[in-house]
Design brief:
It is a single chain. The chain has one domain. It is 33% helix and 17% strand. The protein is built from four helices and four strands, in the order αβααβαββ. A four-stranded mixed sheet has the order 1-2-4-3. α3 packs parallel to α4.
């Protein structure tokens, strides 16, 4: 899938004013689609680095996700610098456990798109 096809997917499945969280390093799609991330973080690499993020920062992202219920695009399938949302590697990063647990509990993987295998997660409620 070319960049334009990812843009079209996001535009087709969101509305202006919706939020999109890109998990990984593909935040260019926030800008190309004019869909803001739910928090001030434009990429999530720091959340996968042990001893880098504070509990305060993790809680900030968790609160933003809980309040704004963004589409989450896990763009990590071919990017080995940060684990995917349901990669099972988060047990080694205790500070992020509540964040990952919230996503796994309240979101459902609904689609996998493109050659980069972006996994789409949508909010399903409590």
């Amino acid at each position: 899938m070319e960049r334009g096809e990812y843009v079209q997917y996001i535009l087709k499945h969101t509305q202006p004013g919706d939020y999109v969280l890109i998990w990984g390093n593909a935040s260019v799609y926030n800008f190309l689609t004019e869909r803001k991330p739910p928090a001030r973080f434009v990429y999530t690499y720091p959340f996968g680095v042990p001893n880098y993020v504070s509990q305060e920062i993790v809680d900030e992202l968790l609160l933003a996700i809980a309040q704004k219920k963004p589409m989450i695009i896990d763009a990590t399938a071919r990017d080995k610098t940060i684990p995917g949302i349901n990669a099972g590697l988060w047990k080694d990063l205790p500070i992020t456990q509540d964040l990952i647990r919230f996503i796994e509990t309240h979101y459902t993987h609904v689609d996998t798109v493109g050659s980069e295998r972006f996994r789409i997660w949508l909010y399903q409620g409590d």
